[in-house]
């Protein structure tokens, strides 16, 4: 019988890379790959067992009793009596746990803390309960990534990885439980701090620089160590593309200080954390030749290819570029001279379920295989076209709940919202991610990440989702090409303060100094192109109903989106998990960007629209 997670001997072998020969390491990789082969072949059987196991373990918890499951562990009864829910439906139970109620409300295992979501869209972070067992389950998930990469890029044990990692201070709930972003929890845990040496994941950053909670000191010291060990670096990255680009932009601003530290073998006086100082100075020795080389490269007029110039042995960039992160692909290509961009995993605060089994595929073709041992997965069919959007109401009627399909029953090309049942007490929980079935590995489906459900602009009956907005914005950029510029970042806001209300798109341009030489008519054409790329409901309301006003583009100062990120972090968001929100709903963030506006432009006329009487 297959285990619910990689067996302990496999985990021990793969974690104990310090004491075994390379041939034995490769043998343990083979076992991990066989595990992947097994779980993709037997996905439905494993899913059935996982659900039965979750319901057996938690048979007597309050939530399942409340809904009348009465100890049943079969799929049919579970689907009949347990409702499909969102976070709002769990808030009262989660607040009870956060306030100190230790009774088994959601799961039998004691809740050891909460993972916090980034909370960048609506300004509120979710508290996702976790247990000791679930945290360990996530850790086992991590060990499968290296064997997969080794098939495609051998020799990663011959050098280092410059991977930027950050931690946030932990918060305490009124009941004394720790609430912290998932990556921060991992970096502060014994799983990370006491991990054996792993030549396949030998980071240039000392642990002290990662655990440091001051974001400036952490990033500065990690960059310093990465630059000093530049010839040993075989891959670079961060959790998300934005996080890695933030490091490059930081380098553009602070390279003179970093060069001085490398030249003298000292560390800048702004780095005051004693543990960071000690860790960095163990690595850093005076190297004037390297400092001169970095200075020469960073002083050039163009930063194209700066990654391969400073870290010449880099084989690929490791960062998530799916969904809204795909807008950063051209920027990564520019800075890296087209290095492969690898997305190895798919996960979220609620669960870590997916692996990319073909990591060297094109970034826009990334698909993830869900690991059936991590949770029980269901899929809510989603329709996204001109008339129907992916923003279904949170409440599903009985018929809609019956439409949910199991992991092995999804259809190629169909889009679904992911629904999970986890060991930590989430039952038929709508994650909010919209996935498209891209193919199959044996019996297990592989999914493209499309967008987040519910991240929408809406003034009237129009609903514009994240992916539709992104495509529309990208279509409009063609008007800027003759002026050698594009947008570096964007977000949006549904402004209902005007009559009629209208969409606002905020742009921060790459070459901000070029903006003054661009005729206003060009930005007006951008506005119109965005509108003509949106769905027919929006265009009907603009043209026929006149209940939506002309779309507006606001050009903001250089660094405005960094200020937006700083604000989110000050409110508790994690640097590692931060993603620029594509739709602003939190008033202070709207006020922040409005205070940075340099110029604004409106669509000069209505978009094209033809009545559809179908």
From TrEMBL:
GO CC term (a single one): cytoplasm
Domain GH3 C-terminal span(s) in chain numbering:
468-586
Q: Where is the GH3 middle domain?
A: 368-452
Recall the GO molecular function terms of this protein's record.
indole-3-acetic acid amido synthetase activity
Query: Does this entry carry the keyword ATP-binding?
Result: no
Please give the superkingdom of this protein's source: Eukaryota
Q: Which residues form a coiled coil?
A: none
Q: Alphabetically list the UniProt keywords.
A: Ligase
Family to which this protein belongs:
Belongs to the IAA-amido conjugating enzyme family.
- Name used for this protein in its record: GH3 auxin-responsive promoter
Q: Which organism is it from?
A: Macleaya cordata (Five-seeded plume-poppy)
């Amino acid at each position: 019988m297959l285990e619910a997670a990689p067996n302990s001997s496999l985990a021990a072998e793969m974690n104990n890379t310090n004491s075994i020969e390379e041939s034995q390491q490769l043998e343990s990789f083979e076992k991990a790959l066989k595990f992947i082969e097994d779980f993709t072949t037997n996905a439905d059987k494993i899913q059935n067992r996982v659900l039965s196991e979750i319901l057996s373990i938690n048979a007597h918890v309050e939530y399942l009793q409340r809904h009348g499951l009465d100890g049943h562990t079969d799929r049919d009864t579970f689907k009949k009596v347990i409702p499909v829910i969102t976070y709002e439906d769990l808030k009262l139970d989660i607040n009870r746990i956060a306030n100190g109620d230790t009774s088994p409300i959601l799961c039998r295992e004691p809740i050891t803390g909460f993972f916090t979501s980034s909370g960048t869209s609506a300004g509120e972070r979710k508290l996702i309960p976790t247990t000791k067992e679930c945290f360990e389950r996530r850790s086992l998930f991590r060990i499968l990534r290296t064997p997969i990469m080794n098939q495609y890029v051998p020799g990663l044990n011959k050098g280092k990885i410059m991977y930027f990692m950050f931690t946030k201070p932990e918060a305490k709930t009124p009941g004394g439980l720790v609430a912290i972003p998932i990556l921060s929890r991992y970096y502060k845990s014994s799983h990370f701090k006491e991990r054996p040496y792993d030549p396949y994941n030998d980071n240039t950053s000392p642990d002290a620089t990662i655990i440091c909670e001051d974001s400036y000191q952490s990033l500065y010291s990690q960059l310093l160590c990465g630059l000093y060990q530049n010839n040993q670096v075989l891959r670079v990255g961060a959790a998300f593309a934005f996080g890695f680009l933030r490091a490059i932009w930081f380098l553009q601003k602070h390279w003179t200080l970093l060069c001085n530290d490398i030249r003298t073998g000292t560390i800048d006086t702004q780095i005051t954390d004693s543990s960071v100082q000690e860790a960095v100075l163990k690595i850093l020795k005076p190297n004037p030749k390297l400092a001169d080389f970095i200075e020469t490269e960073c002083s050039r007029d163009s930063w194209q290819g700066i990654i391969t110039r400073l870290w010449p042995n880099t084989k690929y960039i490791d960062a998530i570029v799916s969904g809204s992160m795909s807008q950063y692909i051209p920027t990564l290509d520019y800075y890296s001279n087209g290095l492969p961009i690898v997305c190895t995993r798919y996960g979220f605060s609620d669960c870590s379920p997916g692996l990319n089994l073909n990591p060297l595929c094109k970034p826009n073709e990334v698909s993830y295989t869900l690991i059936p041992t991590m949770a029980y997965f269901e899929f809510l069919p989603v329709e996204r076209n001109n008339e129907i959007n992916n923003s279904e109401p949170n409440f599903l009627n009985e018929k809609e709940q019956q439409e949910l399909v199991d992991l092995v029953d999804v259809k190629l090309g169909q889009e679904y919202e992911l629904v999970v049942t986890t060991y930590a007490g989430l039952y038929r929980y709508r994650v909010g991610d919209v996935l498209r079935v891209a193919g199959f590995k044996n019996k297990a489906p592989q999914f493209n990440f499309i967008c987040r459900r519910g991240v929408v602009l809406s003034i009237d009956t129009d609903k514009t989702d994240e992916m539709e907005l992104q495509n529309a914005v990208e279509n409009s950029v063609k008007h800027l090409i003759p002026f050698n510029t594009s947008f570096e970042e964007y977000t949006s806001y549904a402004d209902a303060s005007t009559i009629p209300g209208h969409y606002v798109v905020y742009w921060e341009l790459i070459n901000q100094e070029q903006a003054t030489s661009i005729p206003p008519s060009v930005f007006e054409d951008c506005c119109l192109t965005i509108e003509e790329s949106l769905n027919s409901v929006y265009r009907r309301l603009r043209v026929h109903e006149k209940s939506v006003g002309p779309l507006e583009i606001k050009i903001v100062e250089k660094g405005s989106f960094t200020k937006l990120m700083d604000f989110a972090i000050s409110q508790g968001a994690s640097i590692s998990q931060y993603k620029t929100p594509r739709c602003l709903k939190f008033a202070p963030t709207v006020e922040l960007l409005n205070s940075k506006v340099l110029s604004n432009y409106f669509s000069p006329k209505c978009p094209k629209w033809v009545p559809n009487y179908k």
